[in-house]
């Protein structure tokens, strides 16, 4: 598929089918799962998103970053590794049901942030600062959203931050902190709604490990797709396409 077509397909795609399907099956248990997530807890996890920069890369790569195909190949390796690792932690937590669900959520979010960071590096973006932090937060939010209309709005917001040379619009220093705080609050709400719905599958007898592992794998896939789209959008803007 042509890269432009791939980008357009992502813009109009619906949230992942697996995530929506599992939520439908586990909806009676969602309230129970939500009670297992302490108020403000996910917000604290999201605020620590940039702590991922100190963690080892999920995949070591050394490719020509001017070669888009090589960048995509490296990004796919990152996705496969994130899926494998988070699927395993989800399966283990699924055996413990509600007791271990709260230990798996930080692992899932932490791995997602490393997934985003490493995907950016695969495309040659390893920036610091508030603009890059906001960009990573926006990617995480897009991956978590289950409303197609809101998702498309957030994608448009993300693309509006990309300049003609592929860099990001620098927010006004006077409003940077409020912007970051607003983004953290909004994304935390999205994750607080999405994660308990998905993790409610951990309560299903016998199948808890299978469901929890599948949910984690699906989520990391959503994160990878959102990250590839975002960093490819920057590369395309840089090349004038």
What is the fold's blueprint, element by element?
Layout: H1 3-12, H2 17-26, H3 30-35, H4 41-47, H5 68-96, H6 98-122, H7 130-144, H8 148-160, H9 173-199, H10 208-238
Helix pairs in contact: 4-9, 5-6, 5-10, 6-10, 7-8, 7-9, 7-10
What is the overall silhouette? globular
Mean pLDDT: 79
Q: Please report the total strand number as a whole number.
A: 0
Round the Cα radius of gyration to an integer and report it.
Answer: 17 Å
Largest sheet: none
Chain oligomer state: single chain
The helix/strand class is mainly alpha
List the uncertain runs: 18-30
Question: In angstroms, what separates the terminal alpha carbons?
Answer: 16 Å
Number of helical segments with 4 or more residues:
10
SSE string, helices as H and strands as E: HHHHHHHHHH
Q: What is the helical fraction, as a range of percent?
A: over 70%
What percent of residues are in strands?
under 5%
List keywords for this structure.
mainly alpha
Architecture overview:
There is one protein chain. The protein is mostly helical and 241 residues long. It has one domain. Helices cover 72% and strands 0% of the residues. It is built from 10 helices and no strands. The protein has helices spanning 3-12, 17-26, 30-35, 41-47, 68-96, 98-122, 130-144, 148-160, 173-199, 208-238. Helix 5 runs antiparallel to helix 10 (208-238), helix 6 (98-122) runs parallel beside helix 10 and helix 7 (130-144) runs parallel beside helix 9. The longest helix has 31 residues, at 208-238. The chain starts with a helix and ends with a helix. 39% of the residues are buried.
């Amino acid at each position: 598929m042509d890269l432009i077509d791939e980008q357009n397909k992502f813009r109009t795609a619906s949230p992942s089918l697996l995530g929506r399907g599992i939520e439908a099956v586990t909806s009676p248990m969602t309230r129970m799962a939500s009670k297992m997530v302490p108020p403000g807890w996910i917000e604290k996890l999201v605020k620590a998103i940039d702590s991922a920069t100190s963690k080892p890369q999920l995949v070591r790569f050394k490719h020509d970053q001017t070669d888009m195909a090589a960048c995509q190949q490296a990004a796919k390796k990152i996705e496969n590794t994130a899926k494998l690792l988070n699927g395993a932690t989800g399966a283990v937590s699924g055996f413990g049901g509600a007791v271990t669900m709260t230990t798996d959520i930080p692992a899932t979010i932490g791995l997602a942030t490393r997934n985003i960071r490493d995907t950016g590096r695969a495309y040659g973006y390893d920036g610091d600062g508030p603009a890059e932090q906001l960009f990573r937060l926006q990617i995480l939010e897009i991956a978590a959203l289950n409303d197609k209309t809101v998702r498309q709005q957030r994608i448009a917001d993300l693309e509006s931050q990309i300049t003609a040379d592929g860099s990001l619009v620098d927010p006004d220093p006077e409003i940077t902190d409020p912007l970051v705080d607003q983004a953290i609050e909004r994304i935390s709400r999205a994750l607080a709604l999405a994660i308990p719905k998905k993790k409610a599958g951990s309560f299903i007898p016998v199948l808890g490990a299978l469901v929890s592992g599948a949910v984690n794998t699906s989520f990391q896939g959503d994160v990878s797709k959102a990250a590839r789209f975002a960093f490819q959008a920057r590369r395309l803007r840089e090349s004038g396409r």
